Amino acid sequence: MEQQEDLGYHKALTSRQIQMIAIGGAIGTGLFLGAGGRLAAAGPALIFVYAICGFFAFLVLRALGELIMHRPTSGSFVSYAREFYGEKMAFAVGWMYWLNWAMTSVADVTAVALYMNFFKQYVPWLAGVDQWMFALGALVIVLSMNMLSVKVFGELEFWFSLIKVAALVSFLGIGIYFVIFGTPIEGHTVGFSLISSNGGFFPNGIMPALLIVQGVVFAYASIEVIGTTAGETEDPRKVMPRAIRTVVARLLIFYVGSVLLLTLLLPYSAYKAGESPFVTFFGLIGIKGADIVMNLVVLTAVLSSLNAGLYSTGRILHSMAISGSAPATLGRMNRQGVPYMGIAVTAVVTVMGVVLNAYVPSEAFEIAINISALGIITAWAAIILCQLKLWHMARRGEIQRPAFRMFGAPYTGILTLIFLFSVIVLMALDYPVGSYTVASLILIAPVLVIGWYMLRHRIRAIAAGEAAA
Which homologous superfamily does the CATH classification assign to the domain defined by 2-468? Predict the structure, then answer.
């Protein structure tokens, strides 16, 4: 099965591209757009929430790194779930992860539309363009790029990620300068006094900080995409550890550092949902055109996230089709080694995002990221469970653990599972959107069960054929 699911792919992703994809995977819509509303809701406490979630995201990535060194594959953790726990778990995990990225794509096209609304004040003819039209345009452009080849995807994602990183580094440099020397606005206060004079780190209490955890988990979503790239990388066992080792520093600098600076530069109440906090900051400090440039950057960031989402789901659905967990047609590939049918299915579902933007434009983003959070939690839990099984089998002498390992196993893995369960509990307490999201499992679970029973004979037949071969 391992060889089958990687057949047809082109080993076209270079070390340069993988390194930048690893960086870009940790910088997405959740930070560039979601941080504004979460700062307004929880205040500077968001710094601690990002730090805690970042720590557990790093543990997930380390666990995935050990699995990749054990066996690189484009099927990623779905393939590992099949290896260590069997077809049922692979089926459930694969479809939940697809749901995550489908909903993330909905959030991404919504974010594109929101960012484009910003330009209406500067470009008069855009005023007559509806929000859903921007969302549809973004989907068509990124879908077209994804269908060409993995080389085009890698190059596109390299430049998207480079722009994101350059923008955040610029913001960090400018922000630190302003904290030390002050902003161009006369009488504007910066520094820790902004936090102390506006209610401290928890101006609205502890509960709002706890309730935004699922949104912050979404912000770290897509770090696991690096696992999917393993099957299309020139030398994964050499490239992957290098990419994974550096991620913790990036998480701390880009996420925690950015949010800390935002709270030191403006009162938390200056930020708002639906607008990037970086655009808010540059729009208020008086540097002409800076907010426009930053809005273009965050637009690039969300296109990057959409690009990665279509890439990842195409590969996951291909792996599932090969194993029988998805219709065989989703395993089709073009001459360039692109699993175009899997990508197309995700794109069709993303059209739902266009519909949401037409009918409930103000709620579209939050609805999408809450449903997406369920898929992310499932995926991360599956990665940890697979690493724990690998550790357990190694203890019994059945398998050899690679040199690149999850540190502190099995305790760090167990701690991560407890954290992920607590996120679901917090989601349930976040009424109404979070509560309804968790309640949606009542509908999702039966659909997965029905899907399994519809495909189980094909799955078992394929598995039996592989075993016989």
Answer: Amino acid/polyamine transporter I (1.20.1740.10)
